[in-house]
Amino acid sequence: MTIQVVSGNITQFPADVLVTFVNPYGVWRGGVDRAIQAISPHYHRSLKHRLNERPGNLPNTAKYLVEGDSEMHGGEFKDVLFVVDDVDHPAPIDALVSTALFYAASIRAETISIPVPRTGQAARFFPDVNGTVLQFVRGVLEFSVLYPEVEVSIVVYDDDDMKTFLELCLGL
Fold first, then answer.
1. C-alpha to C-alpha distances, 5 to 68, 86, 168, nearest whole angstrom
2. At residue 15, what are phi and psi to the nearest 5 degrees?
3. How many domains are contained in the chain?
4. Nearest to 167 by CA among 10, 159, 77
5. How far apart are CA 49 and CA 160, in angstroms?
6. Tell me, what CATH number does 120's domain have?
7. Rounded to an integer, what distance in angstroms lies between the CA atom of residue 19 and that of residue 11?
């Protein structure tokens, strides 16, 4: 498996599936969600439409795939995989990451871009960023053992220290 840590806008990296972690309340204003919505509101509108069909909060770690095509927007990704991360009842980061990656592989994604959850706006609820990163790395490595053929790009936005720390933890 190819694991790389890259810096920049996650929407501009080629991927069959772009993963984003969302809250269960339908308020999606984090950095990754803003970046996706800036180039194509299709993904979040489709998710909102699905959620309107099933009232109530989303279950933690629920997965919602919204299909798309890089031809329909200015990004380099195809589909978006939304994974619910309820900060009021948090699941372990490695479980969230594993859930996302295993699901993406199950739909035959060969390339996946994924941010580190709970390090942007949600970090105010989870101040132990180093612990978050270590759990994230554990989830990625667990996945990589079973799916060595899948390329995973861990995308960090404007944080050289985070990028360096991830590279060190992953042995890159």
1. 24, 25, 10
2. -160, 140
3. 1
4. 159
5. 37
6. 3.40.220.10
7. 10
What are the start-end ranges of the H helices in 3-91?
Answer: 31-39, 42-52
Distance of CA 157 to CAs 35, 42, 117, Å? 11, 23, 12
The pLDDT profile of the chain, 172 residues, written as one tens digit per residue, is 589 999 999 999 999 999 999 888 777 878 899 999 899 888 888 888 877 766 566 677 888 888 887 777 889 999 999 998 888 888 899 999 999 999 999 999 999 999 998 777 666 667 788 899 999 999 999 999 999 999 999 999 989 999 999 999 999 9
- Rounded to two decimals, what is the model's pTM? 0.90
Cα 150 to Cα 100: distance, rounded to the nearest angstrom: 13
Q: Burial level of 71, CB count in 10 A (0-12/13-18/19+)? A: exposed
What is the domain extent for residue 61? 2-170
Report strand pairing: 2-7 vs 151-156: parallel
Q: How far apart are CA 114 and CA 155, in angstroms?
A: 6
Q: 3-state DSSP call for residue 48?
A: helix
The C-alpha atoms of residue 155 and residue 17 are separated, in whole angstroms, by 13
Q: Tell me the two tokens of residue 138.
A: 């554990």
